[in-house]
Amino acid sequence: MASKSSLLLLPWTRFRFCASRTPCFTPGASTQTTPLPHVSVCRRSLSSNVKVRSYLQYVKRKLKSPPTPPYTHVCQVGDPVLRSLAAAVDPAAITGPEIQKVLSTMVKVMRRLECVGLSAPQIGVPLRILMLEYPQKLLEEVSPAAREARALSVQPLRVFVNPELRVLDSRTVLFQEACESISGFSATVPRFLSVEVSGLNEKGDAITWRASGWPARIVQHEMDHLDGLLYIDRMDTKTFININWQEQNE
User: Fold this and answer.
1) How many Å apart are CA 225 and CA 211, to the nearest integer?
2) How many CA atoms lie within 13 A of 136 on its CB side?
3) Strand (E) positions, 4-124?
4) Strand segments (E) across the chain
């Protein structure tokens, strides 16, 4: 998962609306009704599988072919890749050009969006790869009280290929999370206090890391992506919000 963390946002992160009017049925009335027009402001109608594109989009696609994974953008909820079980990476392929391209793209996307974590499925690649990074710059933007409450800490870039997670402390804590793949929303999610993650790094070397506090939350969030899960599957539904809801009332 506009954000200060990918997958995980603190008080930050940065819509689609479809409406259709359907005919009513009144007992005793004629079953012959005149359907009201379908109203939609979505690219895709609720009642149709036909994708609607503007002429400009049509011309653009004629002149330039659509992008292919690894994307330089983050896939949004609804994309099947976010709900698929990611495949393991052949260890011998980690240092090869294809996997290295995936890794370099992930780093670029994560840093451009100021995410603190990212998984390969989020850029359209259904492989078991995740990474995280919490730079000093982002930490400085958080109040001392919030740092302490969330157990935030600076983390260097960490890459895990074929990661495995082990829970070290099964107690859970509740904090608000967000995700770049569910842009503009946030919710409270329970996560384990402490975990251990092991796997291979970008060089193919075996690594093990123990994380607690916010770093542990990031790892759990990213691991979920590899199993086709999103934070909305674990959230307290009553806390689910549009993070810009206040702006709509101004």
Assistant:
1) 18
2) 0
3) 117-119
4) 117-119, 129-134, 155-178, 185-200, 206-212, 241-242
Beta-carbon-side half-sphere exposure of residue 110 (alpha carbons within 13 Å): 26
Predicted confidence band of residue 43 (pLDDT cuts 50, 70, 90): very low
- Each residue of 168-212: pLDDT tens digit? 999 999 999 999 999 999 999 999 999 999 999 999 999 999 999
pLDDT tens, residue by residue, 50-92? 556 678 777 777 787 889 999 999 999 999 999 999 999 999 9
Give the pLDDT confidence score for residue 91 in this predicted structure.
98
Pairing, β 155-178 against β 241-242: unpaired
Question: Which residues, at least 6 apart from 46, have a Cβ–Cβ distance to it below 8 Å?
Answer: 18, 20, 38, 40
Count of residues for the chain?
250
Residue from 141, 222, 247, 250 carrying the catalytic annotation: 222
Distance CA 56, CA 65 (A): 14
CA angle 156, 5, 87 (to 5 degrees): 75
Task: State the Cα torsion 3-73-92-227 to the nearest 10°.
Answer: 60
The SS3 assignment for 118 reads strand
Spell 27-56 as b/e; 16+ CB within 10 A means b.
eeeeeeeeeeeeebeeeeeeeeeeeeeeee
* H helices present in 30-135, as ranges: 55-63, 97-112
- For residue 114, indicate whether it is catalytic: no
pLDDT at 47: 44
pLDDT grade for 2, boundaries at 50, 70 and 90: very low
